[in-house]
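tool_call: predict_structure(chain=1)
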Amino acid sequence: MKKMIWMADDDAEIRSAMKMMLNMLGYDLRAFKDVQSVASALLGGEKPDLLFLDINMPEVNGVEFLAVVRQRPEWERLPIVIVSSDTEEKRVEQVFRLGADGYVFKPVNIDELDMQINSAIQRRKVALERKDIA
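tool_result:
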């Protein structure tokens, strides 16, 4: 069964490019134009295998949403990768402190995408194992 990946990005071109690359890698993508739609789907009981979040979105940005997701026990197993053109070191550090499992810089390339997906899934497993030990 293919893994289901969700993505929240307000840029239709980015969503389209990500869908093409993820399909080439053997994943299904459900793309959302904002995090409010992602939140509604999660609250409705749906669950992806991984979530990509853009940082710069209207109303609620990806960083704010990441912080909310990481505070909810029912979503703690969800691997989250930030996808952004923001290369500022402070921003990257911030999202990892908040619980991101990966960070992909735009423009995205397919090899980096594949590596980040696998790494994020593994990183989330390790984080949860550490939590169980503590």
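agent: The chain has one domain: 4-133. Proceeding to next step.
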